[in-house]
Specification:
This protein is an alpha+beta fold. 33% of the residues lie in helices and 18% in strands. The protein has one domain (21-167): 2-Layer Sandwich (Endonuclease, Chain A). Residues 27-171 form the DUF7931 domain.
């Protein structure tokens, strides 16, 4: 199985995109797009991030937005799929503290199947139809939009499929002492 494709902004949907695409060609532009999407999200985000470097979902503004989403009330949920959650734990990523304080709102899973572990892309999906897609998570270029559900749909389907096949990342759970 190959990963889901992301068509051009609004392409093949038969409609023009509701909003213009976000620029996501450099590290700074990808970070700005990520923050914009988090700011626009209301209660739910889904994040597929094979590896979790310190500067991805670890900056104070991103963490503030993730905290806001996680504490936004009924239905709040941040779902995160990481290939190696123990590496982020070893590197003491700042997102871990939020996940440990709000374990019922910040849910973390790790893929088990080889086909899922071979998937090299990363993406962020919001409940507002926004997405940021990076074809290669190790590179800084990508495509993004604040509202393009037609382009977001195959990514959301992929996320849900992998989520169901994945195991809870128990390494991130707080210790009850």
């Amino acid at each position: 199985m190959s990963g889901p494709g992301v068509h051009g902004e609004g392409a093949d949907s038969g409609q023009a995109s509701a909003t213009p695409p976000l620029v996501a060609g450099s590290r700074a532009e990808v970070a700005a797009a990520r923050l914009r999407l988090l700011t626009d999200a209301r209660r739910r985000v889904a994040i597929y991030q094979p590896l979790l470097p310190d500067d991805v979902y670890g900056t104070p503004p991103e963490l503030a937005e993730l905290r806001r989403i996680a504490t936004s009330g009924r239905g709040a949920e941040i779902r995160l799929i990481l290939h190696a959650p123990e590496e982020a734990l070893r590197d003491n990523h700042r997102l871990i503290a939020l996940a440990q304080r709000l374990p019922s709102m910040v849910l973390v899973r790790a893929p088990l199947e080889d086909v899922d572990l071979a998937y090299a892309s990363s993406y962020l999906l919001t409940d507002q139809g926004g997405y940021l897609f990076q074809p290669d998570a190790r590179r800084t270029d990508g495509r993004a939009s604040t509202a393009d559900r037609a382009t977001q749909a195959p990514l959301l389907q992929h996320f849900n499929d992998v989520w169901e096949r994945s195991a809870r990342a128990t390494a991130w759970q707080p210790l009850d002492l």
